[in-house]
Amino acid sequence: MGFFQDMIAVFKKRQLVFIESYKESDDVYTFVFEKERDLTWKAGQHGLFSITHKKVKNPTKPFTIAAAPSENVLKLTMKINDNPSEFKKGMLELKQGMTIGMSGPLGSLNVNDERPTVLIAGGIGITPFRSIIKQIEAEGNGNKKPIHLLYMDSEKKYMFKDELDANNDSISISYLDSRDDLHQEIDKLSTLYQNNGQYLIAGPKLMVDSISSYLQNSSISKKNIKKDAFHGY
Asked: Any idea what the Cα angle at residue 179 is, between residues 170 and 173, rounded to 5°?
């Protein structure tokens, strides 16, 4: 999506009706909203979401859409610790039928199926790749080139693992718990694909910047790297 399309998307505002929330793990929640008939997005994109039922400092935050466009709901998955921000307190207070605001969708973290793809997720950064993998499954696993997911989580929680493993016919998945192991896997794949591969990185900003630098130091061209850095809020 180009700059001007992004600007148009920002000005497209709507209200999403809340259905339910549930825990993925001790500190990770998924929030489920109704998907209006005219609402669509590309797998891997994010939106700007606003708390509207109460006054909140900085009420609008960007979050990746964890659901695939082919699913009949919109999902947001986020970490919420014991001392949540005002925004996340507002999310936890949602009850069925209440709404939040949305602008977008935005972003270009998507897969070009003409080239081998390496998806690199750190922790909560798995959310855009969950959307991408679910969409590949919905489209019939017809990808022309291989896709690899390198999923690093030092706590070994691996959100969506059951769902991801159910898609293992269309994608190769490595579950990793250290940066050294991640670097080793990157080295293997970057050697295999040279500069023909595309690399999508999502996770905490420090991790995303570090892995992007590692790829570039491994002679991967910057134009073959796409990034989605997650902030704590």
From this structure: 10
Closest CA to 66 of 232, 230, 233, 188: 230
43: which 2 tokens?
A: 């797998």
Tokens of 97: 């039928």
State in Å, rounded, how far the first CA of the chain is from the last one. Answer: 26
Q: What is the pLDDT of residues 40-92, one digit of tens each?
A: 999 999 999 999 999 998 899 999 999 999 999 999 999 999 999 999 999 99
The helix or strand, by DSSP H or E, that contains position 210, with its residue range, turns out to be: helix 205-217
Count each helix (H run) and each strand (E run) in the chain, helices first.
6, 11
132 and 110 in contact (C-beta within 8 Å)? yes
pLDDT tens profile 120-140: 999 999 999 999 999 988 887
Sign, CA torsion 206/9/109/33? positive
